[in-house]
Design brief:
- There is one protein chain.
- By secondary structure, this protein is mainly alpha-helical.
- Helix content is 79%, strand content 0%.
- The longest helix has 30 residues, at 30-59.
């Protein structure tokens, strides 16, 4: 239970601050920087917390499939957080309408569901004491794919200047782009740590 508390606090506190920052941006460009900073800090926390817990679990002798279940669960939490930020920001009307937010929200929600479901299957396999090697390999390939895609997302967003869109009034997608970039960073870090800890 204690392990869940930092994650829940990070989700709750960051969500409130990000909503306030997005709402206040039209009258104060500084709030755009606040949104950027809080998003970055939250995702760095997610990455460091996940890596710390993976390292501790590895030292305690957890199996490869159990560690993979952990990393899938951590990634699922980050995807869930990203979806929550989007629905709170655009679904509640905090920001002006952005026609693409629903598609991104649905994609994030679906991937979060898949990650958490995979974590449950892997955890069940680990708990049974009879690890499913095929399931582990599938999860590992998915983790590699996720890592590659997240790195590409970061490169694309950074190269196109999406992180500073809040400086231009006509853009309404800048909160989402902050979440996408730093969320991708956290998931890439978690995926990389998982691959390292579960390598043969």
């Amino acid at each position: 239970m204690k392990a869940v508390v930092p994650w829940m606090l990070a989700i709750s506190v960051s969500l409130v601050i990000l909503i306030i920052a997005a709402a206040a941006r039209p009258n104060n460009v500084t709030m755009g920087y606040v949104h950027l900073s809080v998003t970055a800090a939250t995702c760095i926390f997610y990455a460091l917390q996940a890596i710390r817990e993976l390292q501790a679990a590895s030292k305690n002798g957890e199996t490869r499939i159990a560690l993979t279940a952990r990393s899938a669960r951590y990634a699922g939490v980050v995807w869930t957080w990203a979806a929550l930020v989007l629905v709170a920001t655009y679904g509640l009307g905090i920001m002006p309408p952005w026609r693409e937010w629903q598609a991104h929200f649905l994609a994030m929600t679906a991937i979060a569901g898949l990650s958490l479901s995979l974590a449950a299957f892997l955890g069940k396999s680990a708990a049974s004491g009879q690890e499913d090697e095929t399931l582990f390999k599938i999860a590992r390939y998915l983790t590699i794919g996720q890592l590659v895609v997240m790195v590409l997302v970061m490169i694309g967003l950074a190269a196109d200047g999406h992180l500073t869109r809040f400086l231009t009034e006509r853009y309404v997608d800048w909160p989402a782009k902050h979440v996408m970039f730093f969320g991708a960073m956290a998931i890439a870090a978690i995926s990389g740590a998982s691959l390292k800890k579960t390598s043969v």
